[in-house]
From TrEMBL:
Start and end residues of each Xylose isomerase-like TIM barrel domain: 88-283
Chief localization: cytoplasm
GO molecular function, one term: xylose isomerase activity
Co-factor(s): Mg(2+)
Domain of life the protein comes from: Bacteria
Keyword Isomerase found: yes
Entry-linked InterPro entries: Xyl_isomerase-like_sf, Xyl_isomerase-like_TIM-brl, Xylose_isom_bac, Xylose_isomerase
Name by which UniProt lists this protein: Xylose isomerase
Record-listed Mg(2+) 1 binding positions: E232, E268, D296, D339
Catalytic function, reaction form: alpha-D-xylose = alpha-D-xylulofuranose
Amino acid sequence: MSTHFPDISRIAYEGPQSKNPLAFKHYNPDELVEGKTMRDHLRFSIVYWHTMCGQGGDMFGEATAIRPWDAGKTGIEQAKARVPVFFEIAEKLGMPYYAFHDRDVAPHGKTLRESNEYLDTIVALLKEQQQRTGIKLLWGTAQLFVHKRFMNGAATSPNAEVFAFAAAQVKKALEVTHELGGEGYTFWGGREGYMTLWNTDMKRELDHLARFLHMAVDYAKEIGFKGQFYIEPKPKEPTKHQYDSDAAACLNFLREYDLLPHFKLNLETNHATLAGHSMQHEMEVAGAAGALGSLDANTGDLLLGWDTDQFLTDASVATQMMLSALKHGGLTTGGVNFDAKVRRESIDPEDLFFAHIGGMDTFARGLKNAAAIRADGRLGEFVQQRYASWDTGLGASIEQGKETFASLEKLMLEKGEAAPNTSGRQEYLENLVNEFV
């Protein structure tokens, strides 16, 4: 292990009474919750892009972060220097997984060939660190949104050669993800959308995006990559409208183009907010379709209108998320992936540890709270009773397809009026959940 953080040891679980800022208060990886360890429930993943490439800059200001390992280095030399630091952070946090973008672990070259050579250099270092630490690759992805060639999108670009370049880049990213034993591959259409419809053929762009994804599925089979494919919904930013705008839009697209058998969703809390939804809503939409795959563990600032990618520290939100995850069978392929960055004002390297410790503890609290609510049974029983009229008699007959408009009209003409509704008891249920949070 490198020693860029000589004063920080492996982060240990010390319990809720601990005042040590470099200790877990709730995340005990070996603790059993519903018969499975927290480690296996949460499958935490640290991301390369924000952790190593986040410099604290924003659209209004320059970089602020103090990163000694970057000093005096650029290009491939800087990229090589970051690898051992990243794995030191991951190892000391006890992260079982990590995730990366191709152009964040390795720099752009002057040509695609040179970019691929840079990537191969860094992949060899990543593989060495994986073998040394036992940390696995949760998923890889290609960065198809920063370079100016992707100004109009990648798979949805009106320029056919940009589509071809993106295909070549994803081909290489799939190869290195497979080489590193990645358990999945994610597509985030950062600029797959439009700024104005005056210059956009939406149908053609969606057709091209679907063709691109089918090509990826075909190539994965060709090289023997059996990892799960994901799409990550986001409604806007940097484009005015992105085609993968929310979970429902993604599922509709996947069904329309016969891609649903190959994809699940990688859902992000901040993206749900930008779409006007709660993360619980997005998880329920995905879960109901059998497409709940992986989670990007962050949140936004509700007073800011853009994707701030903050570490989640709200145990109530984490409880909602874990209730949905447990309800739909858990994260069987993906994980809780910290697509989050420290604030621009948090400039010290140690702040990376404080941020991840807080996020990991928050999700651990959410998991324990969710399991306790399920064990208590009152919430589940209330929902079950609310729909009791569908379990027998008329409701069961409707669900079984035995009724028609004519038969239902006949019944209501005879009865004259529907049975009275019962209270939804929203306030009671909110109070009930707060007993655990």
